[in-house]
Amino acid sequence: MFFTTSLVLFAFGCALFSAHAEIHQHMLTIDATARGNWAYVNLLAEEVVKVNDAKTAMEWALGFKRTESIVNGGVSGPGAGGAIALKDVAYEDVLETPEGDYVADTEQIATFARGDRWYTYTGPPNHWVLPNAKVYVLQTADGNFAKIRFIGYYENNETKEGAANISIEYALQDDGSRNLVEVESQPASVDARQKATTTWTAIKQTRR
To answer: Which of the listed residues 17, 19, 123, 183 has the most CB atoms within 10 Å of its CB?
Structure first.
């Protein structure tokens, strides 16, 4: 009886967890001005986090230093991080992350530096850094999926003042699936809780 009860509670616990799966959509500006230190970002927490050793830490997904960008995977970190660049597609139209080989950082080149990189450098006389019009799909360190695009490189992107303040927009799915479409989770959550309560009441009655 204990085994059966445990299975039932475990099943409903999973249902409750799934009902609370969420797509986290944020815009974030990262201070990447330090030339000697990386700024490590936790996408779920929507913040820069302190990392003592990036080679062993799992709490970061992306790292930024001036124009350099790395993922928590490959030679840069212990996670499953990697990315694929999508061209000729609008950010809003990416509703699901594709299957495929998500490319991690190597000793030769970082993921976001591949191809034409995430930015274009205009050269003289302005020496501007301008984000390219592309969307990246990202596998994070812990195996979740997201889409990301670079918005700007300056604290003020209109006047181009305050370089190395990188702005990104991203949508992160926290349940390990590839879906990036927001769904109404509250009704499912309430229903799951009601079923769990009803089932637990029934179990207690049968044990009397």
So the answer is: 19
